[in-house]
Retrotransposon gag protein
Amino acid sequence: MAVERWSDFQHSPDGNGAETKQPSAIWTTPPTPNQWPDMSHPTQWSHQYYQPRYRMDLPRFNGDDFKSWLSKFEQYLEIENVPEEYKPKVAMFCFEGLALYWHQFYANSVGGMGNLRWQPYLVALKERFGSSEFADPLFDLARLRHTGTVKQFYDEFMASLNVVGLPETMALSIFLANLRDEVLSQLRIHKPKSLVQPAEMSIFIETNL
């Protein structure tokens, strides 16, 4: 049965000189249901953990850029097939600073770690750190403007698009419409068909203006 002790941690500074702990990630075979500690005994999870499949670092989160962190964390949960009841506890090992303080407060408010449930926990987490970011992601995407470099605009656009999930043809139209006129006028000649093409072409055009 591939279950290790929680005492097997790697230490890393949290930016304030203190040390944080996270699993050492000796990852071998996919977990199966009987490899997980029995959640009917809340103390067991603090002594044992599952063996993940890959050598992947948990994405760190200190309270900033919640959307980016959540996207990475959800991918992690999916790849590692983390059971629903374990998600809040795995999330805790991502947290530092304000995020960790919030987690401790929330856990205490529901009666301890054994009472954490992922969906209510995720709702509370979004309300605390992502309320403004998730208010209207499509509106945020549509109002982006090309004011700096093309690369900066493209990076911001793709970050917002990741949350909205529009079809590429619609996303391409919004991207082109929000480019500066001097770049767009030359880009139209090439009739780009994907988001990658106008980004590369626009950077080239920008350097030759």
Remarks:
- Residues 1-34, 39-48 have pLDDT under 50 and may be disordered.
